[in-house]
Every structure is written in structure tokens, then in C-alpha cells.
Amino acid sequence: MAWLSLKLPADADQAEAWSDALMAAGALSVSIEDRDAGTEAEQPQFGEPGLDEPKSWQRNWVEALLPAEADVPGLLAEAARAAKLALPADYQVEQIEEQDWVRLTQSQFEPIRISHRLWIVPSWHQAPDPQAISIELDPGLAFGTGSHPTTRLCLRWLEQAIRGGESVLDYGCGSGILAIAAAKLGAGRVVGVDIDPQAVTASRDNAERNKIEAMFCLADELPKLPDSLSPNPPPEGEGAIAEPKAIYDILVANILTNPLRALLPLLAARVRCGGRIALSGILEAQADEILAAYASAFDMRLWATEEGWVCLEGVKRC
């Protein structure tokens, strides 16, 4: 069985309408993606607590999966009428052939060597080096399999940063790979946080599979900060009791440049005096901007680069 993939551009005020209309017209599934993802124009992902963010990206791709026999022009015309939108002139259609998707997916994911003592190993492979630290991880709904340069950079940073017993916060945990690695490398209290409930679920499942202890939660479920450290302190008389568990020795955030810029006050407040931060998801051309922004709270430097991406590190000033 084959399918058709339909892809069309949509501005922020049109994306949801197109999505609903395409589903009503017979699409099997629809997704909305940022057209500027991976560029300097990318936008923060919506849902970060305490931030006034847009409900949608300004420039989107609306992607629909259709039956192979679908009348694409007719389906588009029907969706346009329902949504009261003009027909797009530059939509794209691609045929997707039937395949053994399980075998095809597995063939694309081999064990990944991160360093001489750290590997990422899919469940259908044996660990290549029994003496190394192996993280069992399969591709899934959440970002982070070790195949992307930013993930590898963060893993190598954690390997050299963790000496044993540190508290670690993985902000934007995705699959939980960085939190799991931190625990296996000897960290003490490990917490992973994400705005996506599916990522939290995937992280918990992966942690259980790897037999490590870590807490994973949504961003608004983190222990509250002491009032003196909170970027948005509550009115007098409504403050939370100071909780040491709210502050961490190490914070790692592998997200994207714009969210990192917006999250600076929140992330800085989660790192103890003298604690360390690692930031990735940043293109080389964007490094100076993030270094300058985080220099307000950290002594920052470029730690490493790989394939056009960077990992930045900093020490929290007292």
C-alpha cells in the first residue's frame, strides 16, 4: 500500500485552519512544523512556563498524509472552501511507497560511539564494547537518539563534567538521553523536564529500560524556586518556601537558539552559585549571540563544535 504526502506553506493565522480542514476532507494525519526551524529565524516552541509566546510559528509547513488514490486538487479545494482560505499555489506532493517500516527503521540506526567509554545502542543490537557505558535507546517520538551532533556534543560534555554525586537538570529532555547518561556517569540527583507530555513519558520509559533513577516531569511541575531567585517572583505574602532541590550543580539544555535566549532568566535561576551550564542546539553563526546573552549570569565560553553546531559552557557567577 502506498500513500501521498501533501505539504503546503501557511502563516500563523492559517495553519490550524488548514490542519482541521484537511482532516475533515479525508487526510489520514496532519502535522504543523516551523518552516524556519534550524535557521536564525526559528521561533521558540510554545508552552514554556512563564513566557509570553506565540500560539503558532509565523511561517509553517502543514503536512498531510493522504490515501494513494486521493484527488489532491479536489481535496485541497474542499479544504480551502471549508477553511475559507485561498488555494496555495506552491504546495508539494510526494508518493510514499509501502515498505517494511520496522526493518527499514532499524537498518538506519546502528550503535553510535560517543567516546571511548560511552555508546548509544538500539535494543536490537548487542553492546559493541562490554566495558563501556552503554545507553539502550530506540528511536521514538521524542528528540535524542545520539545521531544528531548537538546530542553528541552534550553527551561528551557531561562525560567530562560529571565527577560523581552532582545534581543535574536536563531542560528539554526529549528522549531522556542526557539525563540517563548523567546518571550512568555517576551523577546524584537527576531531573529531566520537558513541555511535551510524550517526551516525559518516553524519558520515563527509557530510564526504566536503562535501570537508572531519575525524575522526569513537565516544566511547571519542577520544585518552585526561592523568591529571591525566581525570574518572576510572586507578590509579597505568596512566595514559595525555599527548596534546595530547586537548584542544581549542572544544567544542560539542548534546545534551539531562540528558546535558549528566551529561557535565560529561568535557566540561570536553576543553577547554583559556581554551578555549570551547557547549552546546545545552536548553530555556529548563532554562538556569539548566546554567549553574549548568558554572560550576564555566567562566565561563558565555546566548548566544542561539530558539523556546524556548537556546545557552549559556563560557570554561574556568585
What does this entry look like structurally?
S-adenosyl-L-methionine binds at residues 151, 172, 194, 254. Belongs to the methyltransferase superfamily. PrmA family. Keywords: Cytoplasm, Methyltransferase, Ribonucleoprotein, Ribosomal protein, S-adenosyl-L-methionine, Transferase. The structure is a single chain. By secondary structure, the chain is α/β, with parallel strands linked by helices. It has 2 domains: 3-98, 2-Layer Sandwich (Alpha-Beta Plaits); 143-316, 3-Layer(aba) Sandwich (Rossmann fold), CATH 3.40.50.150. Helices cover 27% and strands 29% of the residues. It is built from 8 helices and 14 strands. The chain has helices at 15-25, 72-83, 101-107, 149-161, 177-184, 197-209, 257-269, 287-294; strands at 3-11, 29-34, 59-67, 92-96, 112-115, 118-121, 133-136, 168-171, 190-194, 215-218, 248-254, 271-283, 298-306, 309-316. Strands 10-9-8-11-12-14-13 form a 7-stranded mixed β-sheet, sandwiched between helices. Strands 2-3-1-4 form a 4-stranded antiparallel β-sheet, covered by helices on one side. The chain has a 3-stranded mixed β-sheet with strand order 5-6-7, covered by helices on one side. The chain is globular. The termini are far apart. Mean pLDDT is 86; it is low at 233-242.
